[in-house]
Amino acid sequence: YTLQGIFMAQSKKPTTKKTKKKDATYKNIMVAIDDSATSKAVLKETIKFYHQLPNCKLRIIHVSDENLIHLENKPTKLSMELQKLIKKEAINLLKSVQSKFEKAQVKNFETKIVKMSASNQKIAENIINEAKSWPADLIIIGTHGRRGVHRFLLGSIAESVVRISPVPVLLIRK
Fold this sequence. Notes:
The protein is of the alpha/beta class. Strand 1 (28-32), helix 2 and strand 2 form a beta-alpha-beta unit. Strands 3-2-1-4-5 form a five-stranded parallel sheet, with helices on both faces. Helices cover 45% and strands 18% of the residues. The chain has helices at 3-11, 37-52, 77-103, 123-133, 148-154, 157-164, and strands at 28-32, 57-64, 109-115, 138-143, 169-173. Helix 4 packs across helix 6 (157-164).
């Protein structure tokens, strides 16, 4: 037998098992952003990704954590003003995303502010809950790439999302 003959003999075997091919194309892509330089890089990469998969739907979310501003769970005049400011900043952030996507000819997208549902819930959990309810089949999120003590002290939302996500996560690092 020659090596070529062995490969030919193996390739002549008919396959009778019919498997249903699963479409690997992502249809619902959720992108989690904040107002950081890393998120700007995420948006840039998301636009490239969209142009490779123009039939996908994009949902750009920003998790608004207004729970941090209440002292002892009692709203004050100051906390109410801070809450309004946080909401205004979130709206402006998503308006800038909308403008950027329209300029880049991204057609099938929506933006959403996800409000933290409970003071004991983490941002990563809110991202995953939103991904499940939409339903997303891919999450894109930025990572600062911190290591060691910085990561330990600051935590990593992206790392938590990767750990608990039921769908693939694409990490973008600036």
